Model the fold of this input.
Amino acid sequence: MLINGKKIAMEIFEELKKLPLPQKSLAAILVGKNPASLSFLKQKEKAAIALGIKFQLFKFPADINQNGLLKEIQKIAADNEVGGLIIQLPLPKNFDRNQILDAIPKNKDVDALKNSESLALSPVAKTLETILAKIGFDCANKYAVIFGRGFLVGQPVTRWLENKVKNLTVLGSDADPAIIQESLAAADLIVSGVGKPGLIKPNELKNTAVIVDFGYARDENGKIQGDFDATLIDGKNTLLSYTPTPGGTGPILVANLIKNFYELNK
Done:
């Protein structure tokens, strides 16, 4: 079963339209000119504007130093007219990511990247929660595998999922192939965020598995692909449930980020 992320996202937006419109603006900060980062921000901007939310994008050159960026963040965050602040990742490698993120007031942290200090749930974790609820997946007594230990996907998903399933395995992309094969074959739920096209194939999974794919990369032809290769699904995999790429987790993630903005500005 293909899990239609665009449809689920539209349902979230329809619910948000019924709520009072936040009067404050949603601000975003972009350092450098990473095309993927700019593309992600444009999606967030489009969603915000469609709901009538004022969206402000602040662009800074890649050669800005950390202290300079911190001062800009603090100035934007101190504005009472700003109700939410996004710092688009990744940042330049010479930056202390945690120190930068710590500059976001927790009542404006729509990405919920401050972990236990955040007042909202990470949009990635909330997207997983949304999908599992939509398909009626009960985590109790299930075995889940998280592929990828990254800051943006693996870590928030692990924190959300670890006390909800019976067993959980977290694999790095460099894990032993035998362990990967054994884990994937037994998993009821696989959440992947590695960014390596074709990393997971249908014939490696249980026929009833659920695959939630946050992986994002472009192949040699520039086509966007996820970690799960859905093109290999055949008659033997008819009970698989999976998110496609594009059109799977991405739209829901954007919708849940906007939902966080509403929740922080009630």
About this structure: The CA atoms of residues 147 and 171 lie 5 Å apart. The two ends are 36 Å apart (CA to CA).
